[in-house]
Amino acid sequence: MIGRPLQSSGVGFTSQRVRDRLVERLKAQGIRNPNVLRAIGSVPRHLFVDEVLASRAYEDSALPIGFGQTISQPWVVARMTELILDADVAPKRVLEIGTGSGYQAAILAALGIEVHTVERIGDLLRTARKRFRSLGIALRSKHDDGHIGWAEEGPFDAIMVTAGAEAIVEGLIDQLAPGGTLVAPVGGGATQALVRIRKQMDGSLDIKEMEPVLFVPLLPGVVDR
Ligand code: SAH
């Protein structure tokens, strides 16, 4: 259950009307899943960025969240979420690598998914946890290097990597349940593509390259601050 937005009506730049306009825009850009659109319409994205950026929270763009990181563009969040929902079995337990602002995790939680999220920058994770608490969002998070995933809590029905790497982190595929879906931006530097991997019931992998995207890099190790 998502807490009430600070401003749920009216003409402010954080109003429900502004959020609905973002939903319309995502629809026009090909996002079809009604549950995903509903989740985007219900989660107050302006509470996941610094106050000075709140007026831009419902634009379809990535925004800085400090430490050289960004909150992903709403279209990307919607598309990745749609890709994991578009499986034969609806995902119940999901692992996200790269909590960042916490927005993607909040979207998953709004869909009734059991979310596990990992972030390497301590300060970002602390801020995200405060947001989860104040919005009444229940999920599991840990401060760690996402390259190792979260084996004790696996296997997961879906894994979402929200930082770019040259290749899929193989160890994460081991934490994917049969029938599960992994989505990740793959490719070094300026050219990345969203890759969707489906683990078949027999363990074989079905790999499909989707749209071009641009994410901050998946980095090794943890940052304590
Ligand atoms: N899902 C986030 C997007 C954050 S940007 C959101 O909705 O806001 C990518 C995030 O991945 C950054 O916060 C970055 O610190 C984190 N990250 C990068 N490499 C990581 C790693 N190895 N393990 C965990 N998090 C990582």
UniProtKB/TrEMBL annotation:
| Protein name in UniProt | Protein-L-isoaspartate O-methyltransferase
Q: What is its EC number?
A: 2.1.1.77
This protein's species is Lysobacter soyae
Listed GO molecular functions?
protein-L-isoaspartate (D-aspartate) O-methyltransferase activity
Q: What does this protein do?
A: Catalyzes the methyl esterification of L-isoaspartyl residues in peptides and proteins that result from spontaneous decomposition of normal L-aspartyl and L-asparaginyl residues. It plays a role in the repair and/or degradation of damaged proteins.
Q: Which GO terms describe its biological process?
A: methylation
Annotated catalytic residues: 72
HAMAP family, per database record: PIMT
